[in-house]
Amino acid sequence: MQLQEILYSQGFGTRRVCAGLIQQGQVQVLSSKVSAEFQLCTHAAQEFPTEGLLFAVMGTAWPYQAHAYVLLNKPQATECSQKPSTYPSIYTLLPSPLRMRPQKGAVQGVQAVGRLDQDTTGMLLLTDDGKFIHRMSSPRHHVPKIYEVTVKHPLDERQIQKLLDGVVLDDDPKPVAAAACEAVTQFHLRLTLTQGKYHQVKRMVAAVSNRVEALHRSQIGGLRMPIDLEPGQWCWLSELDLLKINQHGVSVP
Ligand code: URA
Known about the structure:
It is a single chain. By secondary structure, the protein is of the alpha+beta class. It folds into 3 domains: 3-63, Structural Genomics Hypothetical 15.5 Kd Protein In mrcA-pckA Intergenic Region, Chain A (Roll); 69-139 and 223-246, Pseudouridine synthase I, catalytic domain, N-terminal subdomain (Alpha-Beta Plaits, 2-Layer Sandwich); 144-220, Alpha-Beta Plaits (2-Layer Sandwich), CATH 3.30.70. It has 7 helices and 19 strands. The strands form 5 sheets. Strands 5, 8, 9, 11, 14, 15, 16, 17 and 18 form a 9-stranded mixed β-sheet that branches. Helix 1 (3-9) packs across helix 2. The protein is elongated. The chain starts with a helix and ends with a strand. The structure holds uracil. The site of uracil has 8 residues, from helix 6. Uracil (URA) binds next to helix 6.
């Protein structure tokens, strides 16, 4: 693929802007098939194999990705919306190329796979792969998600049993049950859900006469939050991470 096209596909601006960056000597390329070191390239039309390609724009290294899959450790007081009402959008925590990746000729960027509330922290996946978003959001694709819940009142066996048996939420007469549920301490509930209803954890906990004080998502499928990923930081997801996400997925026929 031409270098200009590579930069464009990775969200570095219009083809014209990308050609400008290359001609100004701002782009270096490390292609394992061509050389073992970053090499300056000032020819916008020079071709490179994209597989395993690393390039640097103004000194920042970037891997070529046909689709971008990232994990954000969502901090408190941020909104998952592109047009937030009260707090900053989570999208402001991502570098501009991730927000500018084109799709079918328009700026699309990565999108959150589902949403977390303003005050919820933890694992949030983002991608520009529409099929992945669709699959993960489908009610047929039950990817378990683990939430660490700090509750206001002490937990007891009756509350845990009710959450496992199923509770009725106000918008649906059919009870919703936790796939797993344990009291880690008196005030720390670990809840595994396979659905993603609006405010589901908060409403389920309220249905057993308790209250959520803090909520953190710690696991999606078989993928845990990396311990070194601080709130507000993001990282790329590898192919192995993507496999892990689906490792515990249960597809309903
Ligand atoms: N359940 C909630 O109540 N809030 C979240 O952010 C996620 C799950």
